[in-house]
Amino acid sequence: MKELLLGCSGWNYGDSPDKGGWAGVFYPDKDIKRLRFYSQFFNTAEMDSIFYEKFYSKMTKGTFIGMVRATPDKFQFSVKVPETITHNKRLDINKNAMADFEEFLDKISPLKNANKLGAVLIQLPPSFTVNDFKKIEGFLDKLPSSGYHYAVEFRHPSWKTEGPWDMLKHYNIAAVMTDSPAKENLEFLSDVTMTTPDHSFIRFHGRNTKGHYWYNYLYSKEELKPWVEKVEQIRKETKVLRAYFNNHYGGKAVINALQFKQMLGNKLSENEKNALERAQKYMPSIQSTLSVL
Prior knowledge:
Layout: E1 3-9, H1 34-38, E2 44-47, H2 53-56, H3 61-70, E3 76-80, H4 83-88, H5 97-107, H6 109-113, E4 117-123, H7 133-141, E5 149-153, H8 162-170, E6 174-175, E7 177-179, H9 188-191, E8 199-204, H10 221-237, E9 240-245, H11 252-263, H12 270-291
Parallel strand pairs: 1-2, 1-9, 2-3, 3-4, 4-5, 5-6, 7-8, 8-9
């Protein structure tokens, strides 16, 4: 069986759970060194904060050197491409999107140099439709290919056609498989097993349909069961599978990631069992608090 990297989308959630954080649910307190603690339980993390310009603009190579030092040797970070490139410039190479992308790769280079860079996630905005096909194709054609794993996440139902998969296959880029609310009409991204020989990528967003936050959602084991068989099949077709739980609100991602690890036939360590039990005991009180807000 090929390599499986399983973790959460983000780790720096220091608030109390009623504010969406993990303090008390997973982290013993709000002051603990969160990345160092997180990496005792998971072998990968998806870095989402870099997507936001207000955070990305303050990051330097030193940010990523610190991440390298805080984690074990074989730990990997999958990194989301900043919104300036994907959402503001919409991958338009005529607006210097590629120059910005090369600057981004240079900034995160300490991860690559330390063999801790997982996949580079190109998440398209929901308004980016199949009519923008030539724009993404032009961008992908210019991507530096040496030593990188790229993954593209479509977020509009118009991409449910053969053209995008053929394009990604041509460039050896993984299509991100997702689990998200049914009302978004993105179920086809759960059905697609578009892998590359090198890697595959799954994101569990959550299925919350109340308000704006998909990720305030705790999956039941029954909801995760269909993914077990799918993951087993994907692992036969690709060298590395990276899967991330993005339902991070209040520590729900931690619970589901550890549960899913167990459902895939992996034995949890005593630390992992204790972390899971502690989070599960905490969850009912969080749910009751949120229900009266």
